[in-house]
User: Which sequence fits this backbone?
């Protein structure tokens, strides 16, 4: 879960570099937020999936925190009690996620003195606004209706994700993905995955900046381009399984286009600016700090999603389920809340309602619900219910040949695009529909798919082999494989907790 605290990790890097007091490293200031009745120094991160406070920087907010820290992928995390939040004239109470700096960073900051940074606002908290990215005023503001001029602009689908991602139709009929990253202030405007980068370099062997750069149907002028790192590419493709290429637009790219995002209705509108007049002096305002206007409203539901997430890692599944239910009550379209409640219900043994929650995730995110589809299939085995009788078709869902695995008839959209390894979810999908046997699944687990380590893949394989054995009445064999999954200790994975629950049920039912 490192991406959860991406802003924290970036800040730690600048602490190491001795630049922690230079707030220009964070491009978009979110100035009009009060937390616990006090002004908070927050920054917007559209590639950050959660709003969080940095410990110990935000001590002045005097929030009451729950005492227990939990470790999530190497980051110490806890949650505050319900805390008043005020922004754009609205007031609500929510639990705040808190990420703790490691000891060496805390020591460095103590020596530096006060740093005017309290935390980051993630994309989920602002995505229900219609947002205008206004490069002329260096402002991100909310509007009530789409500006009329957008009717002639390029219209792209917004990916239903915790990150600001856009689907980009490509000339060859494939689909790419574009991330819009307010956390990237570097001079490089566009970063590309390997295939488009090679194509670009072949056409421009001696340049990083050109008069025109084509990104699908969009042509940007006067921008610097570079290749994206493999880890960043994997992160983007993990969110958009059907994509074959990826681009990232930093703040320098937003200086060269007009952008309006209506994520609630699923669309973004883009319009490139004309080429710069080289006879005039360069724009000295291009490096000005961006701000979020004081009319941008915050959604409160995702605060409770991450409170549920925290309680999950505390093994407090009952309160986790309550947090997810609260998030759903605030926003019935929050797919992450249904996913979290589904996995929590499964751990609590409420299998029927867990399936219903997974169905809802698939309905809300048909192209990005591969793991919920896998969980659902395994649970249908568990319940002895034929998948074809339980499947809920998704209106408008269409998969191209060769990019899906049918799971009787649930679709796992999990095939890696050309040039990349297969996702582990796809391999598990092939096991679930009978295309792979146990030996083949374990053999496949030895080689990482680039997202999941080989030991983790083996642990997940053990759980699904256990579920297969259980569905066939082999309780002793199922117990053995569940035990192997548990012994691997992969506590960042839902399957670890599923295996623990299945072991408890098998042990309770065993003859005394």
Assistant:
């Amino acid at each position: 879960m490192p991406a959860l605290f991406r802003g924290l990790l970036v800040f730690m890097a600048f602490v190491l570099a001795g630049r922690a007091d230079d707030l220009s490293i964070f491009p978009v200031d979110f100035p009009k937020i009060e937390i616990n009745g006090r002004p908070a120094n927050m920054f917007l991160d559209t590639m950050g999936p959660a709003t969080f406070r940095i410990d110990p920087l935000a001590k002045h907010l005097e929030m009451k925190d729950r005492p227990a820290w939990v470790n999530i992928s190497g980051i110490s995390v806890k949650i505050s009690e319900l805390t008043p939040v005020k922004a754009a004239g609205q007031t609500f109470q929510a639990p705040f996620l808190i990420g703790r700096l490691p000891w060496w960073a805390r020591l460095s900051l103590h020596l530096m003195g006060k740093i005017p940074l309290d935390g980051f606002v993630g994309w989920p908290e602002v995505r229900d606004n219609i947002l205008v990215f206004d490069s002329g005023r260096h402002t991100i503001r909310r509007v009530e209706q789409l500006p009329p001029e957008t009717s002639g602009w390029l219209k792209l689908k917004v990916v239903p994700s915790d990150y600001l991602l856009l689907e980009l139709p490509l000339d060859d009929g494939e689909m790419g993905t574009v991330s819009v990253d307010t956390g990237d202030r570097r001079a490089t405007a566009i970063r590309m995955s390997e295939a488009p980068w090679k194509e670009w370099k072949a056409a421009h062997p001696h340049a990083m900046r050109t008069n025109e750069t084509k990104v699908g149907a969009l042509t940007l002028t006067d921008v610097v381009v570079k290749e994206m790192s493999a880890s960043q590419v994997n992160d983007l493709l993990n969110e958009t399984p059907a994509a074959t290429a990826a681009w990232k637009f930093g703040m320098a790219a937003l200086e060269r286009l007009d952008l309006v995002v209506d994520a609630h209705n699923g669309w973004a509108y883009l319009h490139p600016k004309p080429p710069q007049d080289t006879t005039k002096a360069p724009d000295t305002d291009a490096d000005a700090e961006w701000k979020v206007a004081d009319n941008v409203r915050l959604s409160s539901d995702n605060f409770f999603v991450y409170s549920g997430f925290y309680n999950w890692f505390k093994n407090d599944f009952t309160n986790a389920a309550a947090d997810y239910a609260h998030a759903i009550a605030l926003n019935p379209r929050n797919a992450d809340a249904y996913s979290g409640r589904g996995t929590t219900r499964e751990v609590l043994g409420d299998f029927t309602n867990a399936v219903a929650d997974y169905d809802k995730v698939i309905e809300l995110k048909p192209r990005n619900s591969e793991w919920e589809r896998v969980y659902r299939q395994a649970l249908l085995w568990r319940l002895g219910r034929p998948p074809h009788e339980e499947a809920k078709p998704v209106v408008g869902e269409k998969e191209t040949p060769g990019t899906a695995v049918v799971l009787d008839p649930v679709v796992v959209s999990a095939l890696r695009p050309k040039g990349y390894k297969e996702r582990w979810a796809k391999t598990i999908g092939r096991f679930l529909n009978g295309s792979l046997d146990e030996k083949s699944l374990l053999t496949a687990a030895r080689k990482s798919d680039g997202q999941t380590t080989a030991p983790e893949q083996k642990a997940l394989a053990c759980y699904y082999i256990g579920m297969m054995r259980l569905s066939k009445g082999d309780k002793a064999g199922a117990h053995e494989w569940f035990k192997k999954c548990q012994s691997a200790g992969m506590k960042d994975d839902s399957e670890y907790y599923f295996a623990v629950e299945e072991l408890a049920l098998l042990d309770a039912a065993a003859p005394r």
Q: What stands out?
A: The longest helix spans residues 454-471.
